[in-house]
């Protein structure tokens, strides 16, 4: 194309690692030669070359690309040439931004020779579809890589960058296998022991920080030869990650985090349903019983504030009428110059949806409740240990019963949620009759809520199917319950670990009557 303007050319060359293996034609040398033929044919003025070798087209944070942008800003160059559009980038949004907005705004002529695109030529092919194709290509490649990695993870190969704290790669034999790191193994064991014996996560953090135990990141640097005089401050998230990772009981667990998109480096935590767990594929640091006890305690206390009062039965309390949890609230006031503190229980569902009258307060004094429940457990332990019936009954401890109970509670919560959603429909209809909302808004709300109700009804049906399958199943443990009872009776105030071994839940009805559900088949 003929033009009177003098163009100062910067040629941009890019090659990703994957392309270097599979596409000889895409090599840096071939790109350079292809572009130089164009420069000579059109008698253009060459200024500089920008090369990003080993950079993905979906990532625009590239060293020489950024250098090229700086040269554009300083007006050192006013023309950019690439072999084709994909060399500039494969993300169609960002690539389109540079080709269709940034370059024109900075009066940059852009040529992608292989795609016959020249920003000065109004007859150039429409590039929007090309950008979209390039973006689809990198998305497809990214998905294929993820699938390959996930397959390897399912087969028990460790594909992470850094081994979990307490482990290291078996470099001598197979870098995709984990072995126990004897240097810090005891720290991991200690975390589980402290937590299972009632020591809170923040207290564990404070203890390790005070003892100047290096945090995992500092320890990793030390193993790489980067010595440091600092130890770091242990954070609660670090302890939580260890306590909830099945890897520590021998089930190699990966994909606990993932990128939010193939276009972003940001990582987010995944749901448990997305974890990839290869059972028995790495050595265990703690036994299964220790790990499951920690999960039981953690799940009962994960929503509590770090600075809240230590309530022994937090997480065990449930509303009989609606199946939701019972919260414990602290109230303080002055009376005759002295501070009075009271801990009171309330139904969480009632507190959240008071206006819909879906439940009642279930108000009860926590301190009195704790005293009476402990008294009842001790009485029951003594009675059945003496007659030997309690031990025999506990031997029928059934994980299936626990799962059955959880499903029943989930069904109760869903059924109550359906009531709330129906109440919302009634309210929307009432607002429509009062002409506070239009018919269109009411119809939209009704359809949205009704679809949600249908989904929840389907979910309850699925729960009913699961409950039917669970009937009659049982697993037994014939060894540990006598010791659990004796340990309980020896303590003035038992730990959460002991309580988790004895009871599933404590149910409170609207008349403040309390019922304890033990980890045995229904009897009491």
Describe the protein.
- With 524 residues, the protein is α/β, with parallel strands linked by helices.
- It has three domains: 8-142, Resolvase, N-terminal catalytic domain (Rossmann fold, 3-Layer(aba) Sandwich); 167-301, Alpha-Beta Complex (Hect, E3 ligase catalytic domain fold); 317-518, no CATH class.
- The chain contains 18 helices and 17 strands.
- It has helices at 17-22, 28-41, 63-73, 85-88, 92-105, 128-154, 185-196, 201-210, 216-223, 236-243, 288-301, 348-352, 366-387, 389-394, 399-433, 439-470, 481-490, 496-502, and strands spanning 8-15, 45-53, 79-82, 109-112, 117-118, 167-170, 174-180, 252-254, 257-259, 267-269, 276-278, 317-319, 326-335, 338-347, 364-365, 503-508, 514-518.
- The strands form six sheets. A five-stranded mixed sheet has the order 2-1-3-4-5, with helices on both faces. Strands 12-16-17 form a three-stranded mixed sheet.
- A hairpin with a 2-residue loop joins strand 13 and strand 14 (338-347).
- The longest helix has 35 residues, at 399-433.
- The protein is extended and about 100 Å long.
Number of strands: 17
CA-based gyration radius:
32 Å
Strand content: 15-25%
The low-confidence parts are: 472-479
Provide mean pLDDT, rounded: 81
Describe the biggest sheet?
Answer: 5 strands, mixed
What class would the helix/strand composition place it in?
alpha/beta
CA-CA gap between termini: 93 Å
Oligomer: single chain
Number of helices: 18
Please state how the strands of the largest beta sheet are arranged side by side.
Answer: 2-1-3-4-5
Shape: extended
Q: Supply the number of structural domains.
A: 3
Query: In which range does the helix fraction lie?
Result: 40-55%
């Amino acid at each position: 194309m003929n033009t009177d303007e003098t163009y100062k050319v910067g040629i941009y060359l890019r090659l990703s690692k994957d392309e270097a293996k599979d596409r000889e034609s895409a090599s840096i040398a071939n790109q350079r030669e292809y572009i130089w033929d164009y420069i000579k044919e059109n008698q253009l003025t060459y200024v500089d070359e920008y090369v990003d070798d080993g950079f993905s087209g979906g990532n625009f944070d590239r060293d020489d690309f950024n250098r090229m942008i700086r040269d554009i800003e300083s007006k050192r160059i006013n023309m950019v040439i690439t072999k084709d559009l994909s060399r500039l980038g494969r993300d169609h949004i960002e690539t389109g931004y540079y080709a269709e907005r940034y370059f024109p705004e900075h009066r940059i002529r852009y040529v992608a020779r292989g795609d016959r695109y020249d920003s000065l030529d109004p007859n150039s092919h429409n590039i929007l579809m090309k950008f979209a194709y390039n973006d689809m290509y990198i998305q497809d490649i990214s998905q294929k890589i993820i699938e390959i990695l996930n397959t390897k993870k399912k087969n028990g190969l460790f594909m992470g960058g850094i081994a979990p704290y307490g482990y290291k790669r078996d470099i001598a034999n197979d870098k995709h296998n984990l072995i126990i790191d004897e240097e810090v193994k005891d720290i991991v064991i200690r975390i589980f022991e402290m937590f299972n014996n009632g020591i809170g996560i923040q207290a564990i953090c404070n203890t390790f920080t005070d003892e100047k135990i290096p945090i995992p990141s500092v320890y990793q640097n030390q193993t790489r030869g980067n010595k440091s005089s600092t130890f770091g401050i242990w954070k609660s998230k670090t302890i939580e990650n260890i306590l909830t990772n099945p890897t520590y009981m021998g089930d190699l667990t990966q994909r606990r985090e993932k990128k939010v998109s193939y276009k972003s480096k940001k990582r987010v935590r995944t749901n448990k349903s997305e974890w990839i767990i290869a059972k028995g594929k790495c050595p265990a640091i703690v036994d299964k019983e220790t790990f499951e006890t920690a999960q039981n305690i953690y799940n009962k206390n994960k929503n509590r504030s770090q600075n809240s009062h230590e309530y022994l039965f937090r997480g065990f309390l449930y509303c009989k009428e609606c199946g939701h949890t019972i919260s414990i609230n602290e109230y303080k006031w002055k009376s005759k110059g002295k501070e009075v503190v009271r801990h009171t229980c309330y139904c969480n569902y009632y507190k959240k949806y008071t206006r819909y009258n879906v439940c009642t307060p279930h108000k009860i004094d926590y301190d009195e409740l704790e005293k009476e429940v402990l008294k009842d457990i001790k009485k029951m332990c003594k009675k059945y240990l003496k007659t030997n019936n309690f031990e025999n009954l506990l031997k029928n401890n059934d994980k299936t019963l626990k799962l059955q109970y959880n499903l029943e509670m989930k069904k109760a919560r869903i059924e109550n949620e359906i009531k709330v959603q129906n109440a919302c429909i009634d309210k929307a209809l009432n607002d429509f009759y009062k002409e506070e909302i239009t018919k269109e808004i009411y119809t939209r709300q009704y359809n949205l809520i009704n679809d949600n109700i249908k989904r929840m009804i389907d979910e309850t049906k699925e729960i009913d199917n699961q409950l039917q399958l669970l009937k009659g199943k049982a697993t037994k443990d014939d060894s540990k319950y006598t010791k659990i009872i004796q340990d309980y009776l020896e303590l003035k105030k038992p730990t959460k670990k002991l309580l988790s071994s004895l009871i599933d839940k404590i149910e409170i009805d609207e008349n403040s009557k309390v019922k304890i559900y033990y980890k045995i088949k229904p009897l009491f």
